Structure formats: structure tokens, C-alpha cells
Amino acid sequence: MAPDGRTAPRDERRHLEHLAQEIVACRACPRLVAWREEVAAHPRAAFAHETYWARPLPGFGDPAARLAVVGLAPAAHGGNRTGRMFTGDRSGDFLFAALHRAGFASQPESRARDDGLVLKDAWVTAVVRCAPPANRPTPAERDACAPFLARELALLGEVRVVVALGSFALGALWRLPSLAAGPRPPFRHLLEAPLLPGPTGAGRTLICSLHPSQRNVFTGRLSAAMLDAVLDRARALLR
């Protein structure tokens, strides 16, 4: 439920649940299927006692969300292990800490599907739903997942702000006919661009952020303050 008491209509919640089931059952991309299962069969030593999810991941959060955060794909030993987007890896640690500071998450870390994390007025998803080798999906894999993302955003009828984490997410979002408003803008952190109106006719805005990858965070390309600025701007647009 959103902070102001809004809830998604029952039909939308049911359709999101059906979409999640469809995503989890997908085996459309042979390379991704083989990789996600190979990783699960040979877990890192720290996770040797765990049974990996090793399936595609649906988005999760508040069905009445006005903010949607779109990443690249699950991490091999993160979401591919835990079964929830950005859960159990350092990118997720960085992202959920920022969402918590901005008031969109009930706690600053996400370790497992059942860890009690609740997203408030926010939905977290990704362009590609399976962990890709070297974190690099192919264009064909991106396109195979695109209908899932388009349907998901259509069902999230209250979304007013979409945050694209990285240039890959920006490119994938701009390829969706339901979102793209004019030529694709060049990626930069804190880029802001209008999107086509949502299903209810309300306006929507895109904000870009550098992806909270370990490389970007450890090298200082993306700081906590920089990600906070993105979410603060999202919060301002939602007021």
C-alpha cells in the first residue's frame, strides 16, 4: 500500500501475479537458461549451503507504486540465488540503502526474499530477467524480455517516475513504444526526460542514474549522494 493509503485495483494485482508466474516459467533464451543453471550448480563457497533460485525474476514492490526503478539484470550470485531483484548482492545493498533513505523502503538492506523488506510507493524490476554471463545480455535477449517489461509497466498504472539504472536500461526503455517520446536522449546521470502518458493518461518522467554496480561504486563514479539526488528528484516530482 502506498503511504497515502492508495492500493492497486484487485484486477491489476492479479494480473501482476499472473505475469510474475509467466516470467518465472520462461525458458526463451538458451544461453541464459544454461548460465543461470550452471551458476546454481557451482555456487560460491559462501553460498554452498543454499539452493539457488536459478529462474527468471519478476519485479517486486508496491503494486500502487508511483516510482519504478529499472535495472539491467539479476546478478549471478545475487538475485539468481535469492529469487528477488537486487537482493543479496552489493549493488542491491547500495540501492536499497538509498531507497530507505528516501522513504521508499522499510529497511536499508535486502538479504533474502523473506527478510521483511517492504517497498513503499516503489517497484523494482529489470530489463532482462535472467542472470547473463559477464552481466552482458545480448540484444536478442533484451528484446525477448521486452514484452515482460512493457506489460509490467502497463499494469503499474500509478507510475509517474521511471528511474533507469544505467545506459542499458535507458536504451531498453526507449525501445518500448508505450514510453518513448521522441528521439532517445543521450545517457547521463540525472538526465530527466518526459515519457508518454501512462495508462490513466497521467504524465510520466524518466530520470537516469549510473548503475549501482560494484565497479561504479568502488571507483567513485557513483556515490551515495549522487543516487540520493536521483531519488530526491523522483520524490519531488511525485509531490
Question: Which labels suit this protein?
Answer:
single chain, alpha/beta, Uracil-DNA Glycosylase, subunit E, six-stranded mixed β-sheet
Give a brief rundown of this model.
The chain is of the alpha/beta class and 239 residues long.
Fold blueprint:
Blueprint: H1 10-24, H2 30-41, E1 60-61, E2 67-71, H3 79-82, H4 90-101, E3 122-126, H5 139-155, E4 161-165, H6 167-174, E5 192-195, E6 204-209, H7 214-218, H8 224-238
Parallel strand pairs: 2-3, 2-4, 4-6
Antiparallel strand pairs: 1-3, 5-6
Helix pairs in contact: 1-5, 4-8
User: So, the CATH homologous superfamily?
Assistant: Uracil-DNA glycosylase-like domain
Determine the strand fraction and express it as a percent band. 5-15%
> What characteristic shape results from the CA principal axes?
globular
Q: Which stretches are poorly predicted, pLDDT < 50 over at least 5 residues? A: none
Report the CATH architecture. 3-Layer(aba) Sandwich
Number of helices: 8
Number of strands: 6
Named CATH topology: Uracil-DNA Glycosylase, subunit E
The major β-sheet equals: 6 strands, mixed
What is the domain total for the residues? Answer: 1
